[in-house]
Amino acid sequence: MSQIKIRNALEERVLAWATTNSIPVAWENVGGDFEDKHIRVVVFPSPTGNPSLGVEHRRYRGLLRLQAYVPTEIDGPFAVETLAAQLVELFPRGLTIEESGVFINIENTPSQSPVYQDGKFVYVVVETTYRCETY
């Protein structure tokens, strides 16, 4: 159940930012046919840990990947790197997000990849790790 809460919390934060900035989002298993800038979101859960014996302590960890896409004709790498920098700021190290009594912690400053080419788009990958402890 906590993986669902974790995904909801992370995706709700992305959705609020994307709505405010009028940027479409391609969610996992939904995709889309985009002509303009957009972001794609993927959550990669890691194996659940049980760091305490004899109690219901579970440690959820994982990776949040945000991919920022911009058409190649829009200002080359500057536009996509600017969009990626905004995504880095959206999940600062130390951020705690609460979802239905579960607290998700962003462990590291998000990393930003080089600029990649994908057909008519350039894109940058922004990744960060999360952790959630339940008892």
Order of helices and strands: HEEEHEEEEE
Distance between the termini: 13 Å
CATH architecture assignment name: 2-Layer Sandwich
CATH domain class:
Alpha Beta
- How many domains? 1
Helix/strand class:
alpha+beta
Query: Sheet bearing the most strands, described?
Result: 8 strands, mixed
Low confidence ranges: none
Count the DSSP helices.
2
Query: What would you report as the Rg, rounded to the nearest angstrom?
Result: 16 Å
Outline type: elongated
Strand content: 35-45%
Average pLDDT for all residues? 93
Percent helix: 25-40%
Tags for this model:
single chain; 135 residues; alpha+beta; STM4215-like; eight-stranded mixed sheet; 2 helices; 8 strands; elongated
Characterise the protein shown here.
This protein is of the alpha+beta class and 135 residues long. It has a single domain, classed as 2-Layer Sandwich (STM4215-like). It is built from two helices and eight strands. Strands 1, 2, 3, 4, 5, 6, 7 and 8 form an eight-stranded mixed beta sheet that branches. Strand 7 (116-118) and strand 8 form a beta hairpin.
Layout: helices, strands, pairs:
Blueprint: H1 2-20, E1 25-26, E2 38-45, E3 58-71, H2 76-90, E4 96-99, E5 102-106, E6 111-112, E7 116-118, E8 121-134
Parallel strand pairs: 1-2
Antiparallel strand pairs: 2-3, 3-8, 4-5, 5-8, 6-8, 7-8
Please outline what is shown here:
The protein is of the alpha+beta class and 135 residues long. The protein has a single domain (2-134), classed as STM4215-like (2-Layer Sandwich), CATH 3.30.2000.20. It is 25% helix and 39% strand.
